[in-house]
Amino acid sequence: MTSNTPVALVTGASSGIGEATANRLAKAGYKVYGTSRRGAKAAQSAITMLALDVTDDASVSAAVGELIRLEGRVDLLVNNAGFGIAPAGAEESSIEQAQALFDTNFFGIVRMTRAVVPHMRRQGSGRIINIGSILGVVPMPYIALYAASKHAVEGYSEALDHELRTRGIRVVVIEPAFTKTSFEANTIDPDATLDEYRTVRASLAKVFSQSMASADDPDVVAQTVLKAASAARPKLRYTAGVAAGRLSLLRTFAPAGILDAGIRKSLQLDD
Questions:
Q1: Is 220 part of a structural domain of the chain?
Q2: Domain of residue 12, CATH code
């Protein structure tokens, strides 16, 4: 490895967006370390896998420590690890399930950031790319907790970028819409279901399944990550894919009532 080879760390890199991102970065010339809770399993030869659980402080510290021991630096952190809850009423998830969702989707990013930023500050450079969601900008009913976790990522990232840019570090959020394999593979069922929502759950399961059939490939998101990583002056937010771009424009320019009606129509909900 040459001394000017940038080093990237990608969480949740065993499948979906994380795997596609790790491979895309490796092809672009990064020395890539991927992580998964299962650790070093069979992987692309260009990717070194590290064991990491983003909900565990000691695991985060150990993985970042190992990376620094091996490479002496980290130039890019891609916070991708996360999961969702299948469409359901917000009250159909227990507090414990809501906390578990935030522990991975939001606090996992906080843990990784706290572990990596001191090294980036010492270098005087670095980039943190957080995989958010267009649902962190345009919240959808019946996935309220997931949307809330991604809203938290948006706010944290924007504030953090203000703090760190004078130290040579930039923070970016990527906002995909539905992406094939990743969301479904990392979605769990609500743990406090109610008969009240049975019909709408079944209806939304069909709507979401149809949406996934035409969803973007994970490499669409990976290409956007590479664009954000390579930009000399990165934007704070990048949408990934046509659907996400369209929703972002509607959120920005459409009257609230039109956006509201559009969301309900797309989900086949009664007014």
A1: yes
A2: 3.40.50.720
Q: What is the DSSP string of 233-271?
A: S--SEEEESHHHHHHHHHHHHS-HHHHHHHHHHHTT---
Return d(Cα 227, Cα 189) in angstroms, integer. 34
Residue that is written with structure tokens 């406090």 in the block: 192
Tell me how many domains the chain contains: 1
Q: Which residues have CB under 8 Å from 168's CB, separation 6+?
A: 120, 123, 124, 125, 126
For residue 192, the enclosing domain spans: 7-266
Q: Is 142 a catalytic residue?
A: no
* pTM score, whole prediction: 0.94
| CA separation for the pair 82, 146 (Å, rounded) | 10
Q: H-helix or E-strand containing 119?
A: helix 107-123
Q: Which of 30, 33, 142, 146 is catalytic?
A: 146
Query: Which one, of 178, 156, 174, 177, lies nearest residue 231 by Cα?
Result: 174
SS3 227: helix
Which H/E stretch holds residue 172?
A: strand 169-176
- Residue 27: CB atoms within 10 Å: 13
Tens digits of per-residue pLDDT, 203-223?
A: 998 998 888 888 889 999 999
